Amino acid sequence: MDAAQDHFTFTVGKLDAGMAILLGERAHLIEFPSVLLPPGATTGSIVNIAVHQNLAEEKRRDAEFWSLQDQIMDEFGKKGPEPPELQLRHVTQTSVTLEWPPLQLATAKLRSLVLYRNGERLAPIPSPLTNTSSKLSALALDTEYTFQLVLRTTAGTFPSSILRVRTHTMDNTSGISVCFGTMHDEVLLENAKMALRDMKAKWSDKIQIDTTHFVCTTEKSRSNSPIAPAAEYQRAEQLSIPIVQPHWIFACHTERKLVSIAQYGLGATLPPPASIRTQSQSLPAPSSAAAPPPPPAHPHSDSEGSNSDSDGSDSEAEADVGVPSTVHEKRMSRPGTMNREFKFPTPVSSPVVGEHPANPVVRVVTPSNIEVPPPPVPGDKEGAGKGLSRPSPPRSASGRSEDGDDVGDTEEISLN
Q: Which residues form a coiled coil (predicted)?
């Protein structure tokens, strides 16, 4: 092989399976595709091989390669997905409405868009490519919440900044968002808008995602079509938006707080707005509860009650004694019932001499005034006959004692 020349001389040594073994003059051995050999070359043929560098083709290929790299960089490397910008649209006492601009995904594919509340994952946002708002209800009153959107794509995860929101108190009426329906009274409509403006609330003619109440005086449209209600009224019913009369706005404006809608539904009979405003102002201030009247004094407050105990049990006995007999008969005439306040009257003594017949003095006998004889001692015959039998009170021929009580027939029984 002559290195000074622009070609090299080889001898074909062997042809096998599409490959040729070429032998150089200095025992160089190379494998060469047989398809590149001149036609008719066989084993033992001598061939010359020339090798040249194509610089122009190298430049062309390099330029084509780097042009492709620039296109990839411009399309996929310079612009990527952007984190969503979470914003507050509306807040009330129990709900929060959030919104964000359309998602910027560049060339990445969307995987999910999830909303987090206080660090807890909520349900994914439906139709995230077209939906740019969300309303969260059933929140606590006057409570702070944190919200965050997390965008997941094929190019990575992109969270938004944390948004802090505090729900309103009951006296904050700026969260009212009203949609007006059919209002035949233009003066009433203008007064309602003035009240909303004074409360820093807002209104619209179309139902939006942050609409809190639908206000109208009739469900029909202005054409009074008897076929179907107005379109906005039907939509309010489908979205479960409370439907009230404009008097509810005046009540909130008068009370300076969010009032209940229970008395202001459509169809309810209400006074004119002016009377509603003055009604709360004319209400009297709550005063302290009046003390209950003292119980009537017992007609007998003389020294006869000096034997009563300190717990007042004897005073109750005196009150029961003074109850007419007809009351006791009514209490006892009801079969199957029991009056828990009923008490048996205690025995009374004979009237005091000199008392007025219209107001007799009642002497109450307490258990402490009754003398009970001691029990007999076993084996004592003398004591056995002492205090064992109480003499019966003297009675008349009719079987009544001197006190007037019907004691019936009595009989003495000996214990010996």
A: none
Rg (CA), the chain: 55
Amino acid code (one letter) for 88: L
83, 159 contact by CB (below 8 A) = yes
SS3 label, residue 286: coil
| Backbone CA torsion sign across 43, 49, 54, 58 | positive
Residue 380 dihedral angles phi and psi, to the nearest 5°: -95, 105
DSSP string, 236-251: HHHTT--EE-THHHHH
Burial class (CB in 10 A: 0-12, 13-18, 19+), 90: buried
**HEC profile of 49-72:** ECCCCCHHHHHHHHHHHHHHHHHH
Residues 383 and 339: beta-carbon distance below 8 Å? no
Q: What is the tens place of the pLDDT at every residue in 173-218?
A: 999 999 999 888 899 999 999 999 999 999 998 999 999 999 998 8
* CA–CA distance, 11 with 224 (Å, rounded to integer): 108
Using 50, 70 and 90 to split pLDDT, how confident is the model at 316?
very low
Task: Identify the bridge partners of residue 99 per DSSP, sorted by sequence position.
Answer: 87, 133
Nearest to 403 by CA among 391, 412, 411, 394: 394
- The whole-angstrom distance between residue 224's C-alpha and the CA centroid of its chain comes to 39
Amino acid at position 99, single letter: E
Q: Pick from 125, 97, 96: which is nearest to 110 by CA?
A: 125
Nearest to 322 by CA among 345, 294, 350, 353: 345
Q: In the 3-class helix/strand/coil scheme, how is 204-269 assigned residue by residue?
A: ECCCCCCCCEEECCECCCCCCCCCCCCHHHHHHHHCCCCEECCHHHHHHHHHCCCCCCCCCECCCC
Give the total residue count for the chain. 416
Contact 300, 359 (CB under 8 A): yes
Alpha carbon distance 235, 217 (integer Å): 16
The pLDDT tens digits of the residues spanning 77-103 come to 788 899 999 999 999 999 999 999 999
DSSP characters for 360-380? PPPPBPPGGG---PPPPPTT-
Q: Rounded to an integer, what distance in angstroms lies between the CA atom of residue 9 and that of residue 1?
A: 5
Find where tokens 């009801």 sit. Answer: 334
Q: How distant, in Å, are the alpha carbons of 4, 61, 62, 79 from that of 68?
A: 41, 11, 10, 17
**Which strands sit side by side in the sheet containing 243-244, from one edge to the other?**
202-204, 177-180, 213-215, 243-244
pLDDT of residue 179: 94
**Paired tokens of 58:** 């190298």
- Quick check: 47 and 38 in contact, CB under 8 A? yes
